[in-house]
Fold this protein.
Amino acid sequence: MNVSILLEHINKLTPLNHAFEDDSVGLLIGDESNQVENLAVGHELEKSLLEYCKDNSVDTVVTYHPPPYKRIIDENDTETHLPDPITESFVDSSINVISIHTAQDVCEEGNAETLAELFGMSDVSIFANSVHNFGAGRKGTINKISPADLKKEIENKLNTKIIRTNEYFNEMKEIQNIAVLPGSGTQFIDEIIDSVDVFITGDVSHRYLLKADDAKLGLIQVGHISTEIPGMKKFVKKLEKELNLKINYIYRKYYE
C-alpha cells in the first residue's frame, strides 16, 4: 500500500479532523504516493526510534507526538519553523512520518477514554473540547478511595512511579469524583475546578499547584507519556487488526 491508503485506515480509527485546530496531525514528513513496506508506531521522534527504523528497514512511522520544530521570530516579527535535528534526521532518512496526537486523545477508544476505563469511572462526561462533542478530558465518579490508595492505583494502572501532588491533596480524606486528561492538561483546569475532587494530568507547573490549593482541588501530576501510553497501546492493537499485520510500538520506558 502507499501512504495515502495507510492514512485512510488511520482515519477510520482516529479521525484526524477531530484534532485541536492548532495541532499538527496527518502526514508531516514524506509524500502520500510513497510506498509503505515496513511500518512502526513510535511515541515521538527520537534517536532510539530512528535507530530502530534504520536497523529494520522501516520506511514509515506513525507517532503520537508530531515532529519537533524550532519557532523562530526574526527582527521583522516574521515567524518561521525550522526542523529540530531529530526531525531533519527522519527527513534525511526518507522516513514517512504520520502524527495522530490530539486526534488520538479525543477519539472513541482513544487516550482519554482509555484512562476513564482504567480508573473505572462512571457517569463520564467530556471536557476540553476540540471540535463538536469531542474532547481530550474525561470526568466522572469512582468508588470512594483514600488519597494514599489512589496514588497506589495510579502507579499500578499507569505503570509509573512519577507522581507529584499539591498540598491540598494530602489533606483530603476521601475521593470520589475525578477528572483525567492525557498529556499536559492544566490549561483546562477552570472547566473542572468546581466539579471534581481530584484532577490527574501531566506537566503541572507550580502556579497550578497553588491554584488548586486555593480552590481545594486535589491535583496529581504523573509522567507526561504515562497518561498517553495505555491509549496508544490500544491504538496499535486496532491498527494491527485493521492492517492484518504485526506492528512494534517504540517508546522510552524510562519516562513512564
Observations:
- The first helix runs from residue 3 to 13.
- The chain has a mean pLDDT of 95.
- The chain has two domains: 3-103+229-255, 111-222.
